[in-house]
Amino acid sequence: MGRSVLFxxxxxxxxxxxxxxxxxxxxxxxxxxxxxxxxxxxxHIFFNLKSGxxxxxxxxxxxxxxxxxxxxxxxxxxxxxxxxNWALTALAYEPTHQDSDxxxxxxxxxxx
Length: 112
Hints:
Layout: E1 22-24, E2 27-29, E3 32-37, E4 44-51, E5 60-61, E6 64-65, E7 70-72, E8 76-81, E9 86-93, E10 103-108
Parallel strand pairs: 2-10
Antiparallel strand pairs: 1-3, 3-8, 4-7, 4-9, 5-6, 9-10
């Protein structure tokens, strides 16, 4: 009697992660204009900007931001930050990729 051997090859893999969002500048005094960029093709950037020294991680349902998160509909964009202390978090989303890691930045009126 012959034996049969069954081979199983797992061909499934997790999708690649989006590149992290670059926030420029990522610190300093306010007011200022901040630029977001992401290297992932067709990625959208989700971000939270909150007064103070902590901003929650951005949240979304597919291509739609979940409040208070806001969305920039392309790989890059800018926002203006007024005077005061601000915290900023951002991530990149593209449907065929996993979300990027969260990038954060802090700005304050005194420059510390």
